[in-house]
Design goal:
mainly alpha; 8 helices; globular
C-alpha cells in the first residue's frame, strides 16, 4: 500500500508540472524568459541561443532538455563550447521542479535540496567556462604567433 500511495503522490506532482510546462512552451513564455535571462549567457560565457535549452533542461528534465540541446546543436544555434557548458550545468542540476517535488513528497527538505544543486551547478559551470575561455585565448595566441 505504501508503494501505491507513493505512486499516487508522484503522479499528482508530475502530471500538473508537465501540463504547466507544455502550456509555457505553447504560449512561448519560455522564450520570453530566455530573453530576460540573457545575463546568464554573459555569466557562463555562452551564446544567447543556449539559454532556452538550459531552461528546458533545468525545469523539465535532462531527457527532454537533451532533445532540445541536440536540436539546437544540429541546427547550428549552439557551438560545441555552448553545448558542453549547458550539458555540464544540466548534469549537475536538472529537472529542479519535478525532482524536488518528488523528493519533498518523500520527506526531503526542498530548500536544502534545491539550493545545493543550483549552487554546485553554477560554480562548476562557471569554473569550467572560465577555463574553457582561457584555453580558447591560449589557442588564439598560438595561432597568431605562428602566423
Amino acid at each position: 500500500m505504501g508503494l501505491v500511495r507513493s505512486l499516487v503522490k508522484m503522479t499528482c506532482i508530475i502530471v500538473p508540472i508537465m501540463v504547466a510546462l507544455q502550456l509555457l512552451k505553447d504560449y512561448k513564455i519560455l522564450d520570453k524568459m530566455a530573453k530576460r535571462l540573457s545575463f546568464i549567457s554573459r555569466f557562463f560565457n555562452i551564446s544567447q541561443n543556449s539559454i532556452f535549452p538550459l531552461l528546458v533542461g533545468f525545469f523539465i528534465g535532462i531527457s527532454y532538455g537533451a532533445g532540445v540541446i541536440i536540436e539546437s546543436a544540429e541546427s547550428g544555434n549552439m557551438s560545441k563550447k555552448d553545448t558542453f557548458l549547458v550539458v555540464v550545468f544540466l548534469i549537475t542540476c536538472h529537472a529542479v521542479v519535478e525532482d524536488s517535488g518528488l523528493f519533498i513528497a518523500l520527506g526531503a527538505n526542498g530548500w536544502i535540496l534545491v539550493s545545493i544543486r543550483v549552487i554546485v551547478a553554477i560554480m562548476l559551470t562557471y569554473i569550467i567556462s572560465r577555463r574553457y575561455g582561457l584555453k580558447e585565448r591560449m589557442n588564439l595566441k598560438e595561432i597568431k604567433e605562428k602566423a
